[in-house]
Specification:
- The protein has helices at 13-24, 81-92, 109-120, 142-160, 166-170, 190-198, 210-220, and strands spanning 4-9, 28-29, 37-41, 49-53, 63-67, 70-71, 103-104, 107-108, 130-134, 140-141.
- It is of the alpha/beta class.
- The strands form three sheets. It has a six-stranded parallel beta sheet. Strands 6-8 form a two-stranded parallel ribbon. Strands 7-10 form a two-stranded antiparallel sheet.
- The model is unreliable at 225-229 (pLDDT under 50).
């Protein structure tokens, strides 16, 4: 029989992505309290797997994932996504966003949903009790991310306004630049990486490029976005 899984707590883009991914993996999504596994999203209720944003915690689960810097391309202001949404909106208005000096470890919601699904569907006892950190593997300075958003937005507006020039067409945006290796301590992914391997996965290796995530956010905030990307 398919494994029954109940999701409780914070609604929004992460929950939707997780429900869809679990369903594709063969899980039966249910509201029943008798589900084989209960996943709590920023919830203080007792559950089998608790997922919390940075700074929030609970003792109502033996398996806890602290989640941060998730890019959810639907405007949801949670899990760190509100920062990217604000940067995109400011760039669209011709303003310079306030990015500060904090290093962020951005990751796409699809990579997050994939990893949580692998762990949730696992029958290995070794992954049922632990504390894990989940975010992107590579650190990014805000000014470089904003620079890329601006380049992508300019490319879009040139396309819809038919204002491309030889220079703009040849000026393909370079990939956003991560911080120099070793310039700041990286998050500890050992527990997460091991749990994914023990569950039959390949460890924590997010696949969605940051540029793709940024384009998806721009598209979600611009309904008339054409297929110029």
């Amino acid at each position: 029989m398919p494994r029954s899984i109940r999701l409780i707590g914070q609604s929004g883009g992460l929950k939707t992505a997780l429900e869809n991914r679990l369903s594709r993996a063969g899980a039966n999504i249910t509201d029943s309290e008798n589900a084989d596994l209960t996943i709590g999203l920023a919830s203080q209720q007792e559950c089998d797997l608790a997922i919390f944003p940075e700074g929030m915690h609970s003792e109502n689960s033996n398996l806890i994932i602290t989640l941060s810097d998730v890019i959810i391309p639907n405007g949801e202001n949670y899990w760190g996504n509100e920062i990217i949404i604000e940067w995109v909106r400011k760039v669209k208005q011709g303003e310079l966003p306030n990015y500060g000096s904090e290093i962020r470890y951005w990751v796409n919601v699809r990579d997050v949903a994939d990893a949580i699904t692998i762990i949730s569907m696992s029958t290995e006892e070794s992954v049922k009790t632990d504390r894990m950190k989940m975010c992107g593997r590579r650190g990014w300075k805000g000014k470089y991310v904003i620079e890329e958003i601006r380049l992508l937005w300019d490319r879009y507006t040139n396309a819809i306004n038919h204002s491309h020039t030889k220079e703009s067409l040849s000026n393909i945006p370079s990939p956003v630049r991560g911080i120099d290796s070793g310039s700041t301590p990286s998050p500890d992914f050992q527990s997460l990486h091991s749990a994914l391997i023990d569950s039959g996965g390949e460890g924590w290796h997010p696949l969605v490029p940051l540029r793709t995530s940024l384009m998806e956010v721009i598209a979600s905030l611009e309904p008339t976005l054409i297929d110029s990307y």
